[in-house]
Amino acid sequence: MTKKGSTSRSLALETLVQWTGTGKPVQGFINRIVHDSGLKNEERQLAVMLIMAVLREQEYLDSLISRFSKTKLRKMKPLTLAALRIGVIQICRLERIPDSAAVNETVKALKKMRQPGWLCSFVNGTLRTIARNRESLPKPENAGPEGTPVLNHPAWLTTRWQEQFGKEQMQAICRVNNLEPNLCLQVNCFNRFHTGRNTLDTLDTLNILKARFAAKGISGFKPGSFAVDSLILYEQQGAVTDLPGFTEGLFQVQDQAARLACELLGPFKEQGRYLDGCAGLGGKTCTLAALLPQDALLVAVEPDQRRFRLLQENLQRQGLTNQIKQVETVRQDLQTFAAAKDTPDTLFDGIFIDAPCSGTGVIRKHPDIRWNRQPEDLISLQQTQLELLHTAAVLLKPGGALVYATCSLEPEENQQVVEQFLAAHPAFALTDCRDFLPASARSLVDEQGFFAPLPTEEIEGFFAARLVRRSL
To answer: Alpha helix locations (H) across 58-98?
Structure first.
């Protein structure tokens, strides 16, 4: 049911205002406000584009608004500031939208929200002034004080990244995070729907997908540089579910880093038992299921009802259910699951722990993360991560592999967690991830043996450690 009078701008404005200050993922607000609005697909896409663009360039937008507004930003209400940001992002970044439409439609959104005339006039006047001066506006590279770059990240995050990676690398990470992300697909080479066979090799499936994309006029794609069974779409418009091959399960959305991390659980044993202890929506579960030998067992544990349902749907769509591979899904948290599974006959040969984390490696995909996170979050997350590893440790067979992974760049969640775990569990040893990755990805392993790519235009920031429990 369409909300009466809703437009792309009004939905974007409502979403940003309701999200501000909550510390919650913006996607939940987008789902509730935008996707449930009843508007046409194109209008919903524009609303989401505006929201994400504002979050990626929030600091830059504020620097421009400050130049032309007689009112200080700190004195503005969230609604006023959100409206100005939405207007400015259209003026500066969406060339297909005329300045007049950007201004008028943004002001209309305020009027729909029954804002007073003086406020609408203020927003209208400020946006028109910025539009008139568009050609002389500074770029993000020199829009800060004394011509310094505007990085569009909170100072606490850029400071710690500069200390960790150096100034040049910190700025490179920020630049990547401010770009609209490409869509990375993980090709499903274990699929029975379109050929009647149980298996296809990577080249078969890639060629099928390329042919289907070409038939639909989709030409902007290339293979991944690090994971050969990944395909990067850099001109993708519209819903992923509308892409050719989605329904048949020929692919899933998965970054190369996440795909490669699954390799670290190998070498996979015939009749082996494996556990995905934090399955989530099932991206890595599906990859692990495809990698396992036919007679191996994979158990996927996920407590959240919504994520558990999507986990099952994704396994089913990709043909990775029990009819083809032995995959069990359990709706429990890992601690509850472990309480009944610590006998010798229920231990696992390999366990994958994709732990909850700050997500600072995937800010490009989730731009709200940079504004939601606070430094103190890292310590509380560290405790959760250690608890998960301690629980997983008792479920692993001697000689088995335990892979710990996050999509974080922060040492508190990565190296420090591994160090503390090893100190508490002397039976475990760190192994070099380089030995378990394809040659194309070995450059992503650091000198300590951790798989630790930094965000670039082709791969997300990630961390993984491979730990082995010594044989008795």
So the answer is: 58-68, 78-93
Tokens of residue 223, six digits: 């293979």
Write down the pLDDT at residue 238: 76
Which residues of the chain does CATH 3.40.50.150 include?
Answer: 257-469
* The pLDDT of residue 23: 95
Which residues of the chain carry a pLDDT beneath 50? 1-2, 191-200
pLDDT score for 343: 67
Q: Name every residue whose Cβ is closer than 8 Å to that of residue 175 and which is 6 or more positions away in sequence.
A: none
pLDDT of residue 193: 40
Distance CA 217, CA 214 (A): 5
Tokens of 43: 């209008």
Tens-place pLDDT, residues 245-283? 898 888 999 999 999 999 999 999 999 999 999 999 999
The enclosing H or E element of 463 equals strand 463-469
- Please classify residue 375 by burial: count the beta carbons closer than 10 Å to its beta carbon, then call 0-12 exposed, 13-18 middle and 19+ buried: middle
Rounded Cα distance between 290 and 288, Å, is: 5
Looking up tokens 């591979």, which residue turns up?
A: 325
User: Has 184 been annotated as catalytic?
Assistant: no
Q: How many residues does the chain have?
A: 472
Residues of the chain with CATH 1.10.940.10: 8-150
CB 425 within 8 A of CB 393: yes
Q: How far apart are CA 19 and CA 81, in angstroms?
A: 13
Tell me if the bond preceding 267 is cis, omega within 30° of 0.
Answer: yes
Residues 173, 453: Cα–Cα separation, whole Å: 11
- Give the pair of three-digit tokens for residue 342: 């610590």
Residue 471, classed as helix, strand or coil, is coil
Q: What CATH superfamily classification does 257-469 receive?
A: Vaccinia Virus protein VP39 (3.40.50.150)
Give how far Cα 88 sits from Cα of 68, 105, 174, 181, 370, Å: 11, 12, 21, 21, 20
Show the tokens assigned to 101.
Answer: 């439409």
Does domain 8-150 fall into CATH 1.10.940.10? yes
H or E element, residue 436: none
Q: Is 271 helix (H, G, I), strand (E, B) or coil?
A: coil
Which of 283, 347, 354, 358 has the alpha carbon at shortest distance from 320? Answer: 283
From the candidates 174, 184, 407, 433, give the one annotated as an active-site residue.
407
For residue range 344-402, what is the model confidence (pLDDT) as tens digits? Answer: 678 999 999 999 999 999 999 999 999 999 999 999 999 999 999 999 999 999 999 99
Say which residue the tokens 């209208």 belong to: 124
